[in-house]
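Researcher: Next sequence.
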Amino acid sequence: MEQTVTVDESRVGGAGPLPKRRWTPVSALEFVGCESCRMTLQEYEDYPEDGRKIEFFDSEAGLAWMLRDGPRREHEEPARRLAALAERISQTRGAPIRLLGASRVQLLDADSRQVRVIHPDEIVFLHTERAGDVSLGFLRVGEHAYPDVVLEVDHTSDIRRNKLALYEEWGFPELWVEVPGVYSTSRRRRLRPELRIYLLGDAGYALSAESRAFPGWRAEEIHRALNEPVVSPATSAVLERVGRALGEREGTGPDDDPLLGKHRAESRAEGRAEGRAEGRAEGRAEGRVEGRAEMAGFVLRQRGCIVPPAFPDDGHLGALRAVSTERVLAAAGAATSFADFLSRLR
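Model: Next structure:
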């Protein structure tokens, strides 16, 4: 039987009130790669966090669907990588990005206490203040602001048969569905490794070649980044491009990031000091190079790379002088060793 869901509009927050409509019945949903089990609302609320991942729960049906396979690195890795990629973008943008992990997205019928819950793999807020108390682990549709992006990983599942329709009905503006490059014998044959971006419009979800939340970030670029064991120079350049596009849209930049801003300010100060001592134009240039070396050394040490005590010598300064500050930081952030860092500057 179809279920009519209403929302108490007195409690509606940044997401805006949900329209009164009829929602997809449980009988029409097929949870590929999942097993269903009887579960009451109390049992759901008491379910241990270290248990098998719940994909969907419906209190009226008294059913929960859990992934058939337990926690697997191939399923969880893309969300972890997205967090690292977002951090790089936020530094260039000059403003933080909030990722909340596998929070619960709840639809609550205020009259009947019916609860429907989806567990995404990751949710992304471009503005931290919009996350509000969602950070406590629950996002109630109709009460909280929508995240800018929801990530679902289809390693052994296929959300096109279930959760895609639910996200569309609930009004989520942008959904990313990642099918990892790692092969699985449990994966449906028609699923090929890729990232699909669904953007919500008047007619529902439509596939898009690029993100709306992250301007200019294309689906194939996101998929490559989520599957790279180490961030490549090509991906570093993309992250810088997207971060700058976000910053230009909002009037922020690397100088607004606490870490990068500090080092960039110090670099400029050193350049001015050197300029007074050795000639203004030449001094500024050399000061910038010394600042790049200091920033690179800091980032490399933070990532556990051994930096030679002689860094930077004349040969290092020549390599640092030939590239931009952003290129140096991207190389340091992606390198697995000092030698790898130098090779990325060429």
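Model: DSSP finds eleven helices and 14 strands in the chain. Residues 263-344 form one domain.
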